[in-house]
Design brief:
By secondary structure, the chain is mainly β. The protein has 4 domains: 16-138, Sandwich (Immunoglobulin-like); 159-280, no CATH class; 289-364, Immunoglobulin-like (Sandwich), CATH 2.60.40; 376-493. The protein has strands at 19-20, 27-28, 37-46, 51-60, 67-75, 80-84, 87-91, 96-97, 102-109, 115-124, 130-138, 159-164, 169-174, 186-194, 205-215, 221-225, 233-239, 271-272, 277-280, 289-294, 300-306, 315-320, 326-331, 335-342, 350-354, 357-364, 376-381, 385-391, 399-405, 408-414, 419-425, 431-436, 441-446, 462-463, 489-493.
Length: 502
């Protein structure tokens, strides 16, 4: 077997740019006489037609005699022709090879041909010598020749992609120059989720509308874009249309697996690029909130809610009071809880926490409501005694009362719904002062018995009238009932004393 390096004297116009890959396997028959032809061959693959193109070279052994090819037999029996520049090719049979020269002929055979053979009978005109020679080529060692594809099957296509999870954008592009075959379309989808954590966790709920598009026909590249929630999220670039979207993603449920582009397995590994999934976000997908309402008895009602736009998960609240009181409650998404009441003893400072952190606007201290009734003061006076009584309405807090007459002061704590009475012996002092320091109130009572006590004073006792007044320092404004016993008049004031006489 001989593998000469073929050098063509004339261009082979019939091959053109369609011939790809040289086989170059040649077999030559040993000449039986001094006059002979030497036959060698190479083979190419015409990817436009899928045919093997064999180039036969027939050389004249004689340097002083031309040879005429009287008969040419080919196996397979397809035509063997000699290309002619600028003209139609002619048959190899009948060709004349000048002395010491050669001729090149072309034969096209099916792409799956395993071998080919050329038999040439030549006659040298000058001396009448004749010889039959043959040559062959083995094509079995090469891959079968097939036409170059004009498109790529959808199940064989390769892609490349980009992915930006935090921005919710992606692109997918068909690789190579060939489109998908026929009406084939390959869908891709970008989807974002609400997530309970910035790392993978379930359950997850689809946010907004997934974006799906396809590659096919003349559309070889697509861009995808989805909205991202302003909280923990997961974003996935998946193989398939919107029907492939899983909503919700739950513990033990379906997963995308290798459908995510950039995965290690199929079909995701048919697209080259970064991993097509993202977990992140720096805020919780909940909207914990708290409101507070002070009550007259010193307690605070706390309303907890979890019903904002991004509320997708339960919230575990903890409500803490000033002196160690604490209570935890879970509020489902879209719900509220109004059952929390902080005791009066712990209402001086209240905190509402989620995950160990105080929520926005989650601190509060008890404030006396403006509509809480004020304590009432009543008096009894005669020429011997001056009696002052403070009555604290039901439903309120205990109140501290200071009674001062002359150089004497008595202090009482008046429970809600109870009264406290202090009696002073009548003296030269013209008034008494009742102070409620926790309410920032002071009330002055002028002692002037109605009857003439003859210097020492005498007379019967008359019931007094209640004394109330405007709360100082922001306490509810309102009328104060004045209790008058005989000629005794009480005046309410803040940090000053105003004396009224009847």
């Amino acid at each position: 077997m001989i593998r000469p390096k073929l050098s063509l004297r004339r261009p082979l116009a019939v091959l053109g740019a369609a011939l790809i890959g040289v086989t170059g396997v040649v077999a030559v028959a040993t000449p039986a006489s001094a006059h002979h032809t030497t036959i060698t061959a190479t083979a190419d693959c015409d990817q436009l037609t899928g045919e093997r193109v064999i180039t036969w070279k027939v050389e004249n052994s004689e340097r002083d005699k031309a040879v005429t090819l009287k008969k040419v037999t080919a196996e397979p029996g397809t035509p063997v022709t000699v290309p002619v520049e600028g003209a139609t090719a002619v048959s190899l049979e009948g060709s004349v090879i000048p002395k010491g020269d050669s001729v090149t002929a072309v034969q096209r055979v099916p792409g799956d041909t395993a071998s080919a053979k050329l038999i040439v009978f030549g006659k040298w005109k000058k001396n009448g010598q004749e010889a039959t020679n043959d040559g062959g080529i083995n094509l079995a060692a090469d891959k079968s020749c097939a036409p170059a594809p004009k498109c790529v099957d959808a199940d064989q296509a390769k892609y490349s992609h980009t992915f930006d999870g935090p921005k919710g954008t992606a692109t997918v592009k068909l690789d190579g120059e060939l489109p998908l075959c026929g009406e084939s379309k390959q869908w891709f989808t970008l989807v974002s989720y609400f997530a309970p954590r910035p790392q993978f966790a379930t359950p997850q709920y689809v946010y907004g509308t997934p974006d799906s598009d396809w590659v096919g026909g003349t559309q070889t590249e697509i861009k995808l874009n989805v909205e991202i929630p302003d909280c923990h999220t997961q974003v996935d670039l998946i193989w398939g249309d919107g029907e492939q979207v899983i909503d919700p993603l739950v513990e033990g449920g379906k997963r995308y697996g290798d459908k995510k582009l950039g995965s290690a397995g199929a079909p995701g590994n048919r697209s080259s690029g970064p991993q097509g999934w993202y977990n992140g976000g720096d805020k919780s997908c909940t909207t914990p909130a708290a409101t507070f309402a002070s009550k007259c008895d010193g307690t605070v009602a706390v309303s907890l809610s979890n019903d904002g736009k991004t509320s997708k998960y339960p919230v575990e609240f903890e409500v803490k009071g000033e002196n160690g009181w604490s209570k935890k409650v879970s509020v489902e998404a879209g719900k509220a809880d109004t059952s929390i009441v902080v005791p009066a003893a712990d209402a001086g400072k209240i905190e509402v926490l989620v995950d160990g952190k105080v929520i926005e606007n989650g601190t509060y201290s008890w404030q006396r409501p403006e509509d809480c009734p004020l304590p009432a003061v009543t008096t009894e006076a005669d020429c011997k005694n001056f009696t002052l009584t403070v009555t604290n309405p039901k439903g309120g807090l205990p109140v501290k009362a200071m009674f001062t007459y002359g150089d004497k002061t008595e202090t009482r704590t008046v429970a809600a719904g109870e009264s406290e009475k202090v009696t002073f012996k009548a003296s030269k002092a013209e008034s008494a002062l009742v102070s409620l320091p926790e309410l920032d109130l002071e009330m002055e009572a002028v002692y002037t018995p109605e009857q003439d006590c003859g210097g020492g004073g005498a007379g019967g006792e008359e019931p007094g009238l209640p004394v109330t007044g405007a709360a100082a320092g922001g306490i509810a404004a309102g009328a104060v009932a004045l209790l008058i016993a005989g000629a005794v008049l009480f005046v309410i004031a803040r940090r000053r004393r105003v004396t009224f006489t009847a």
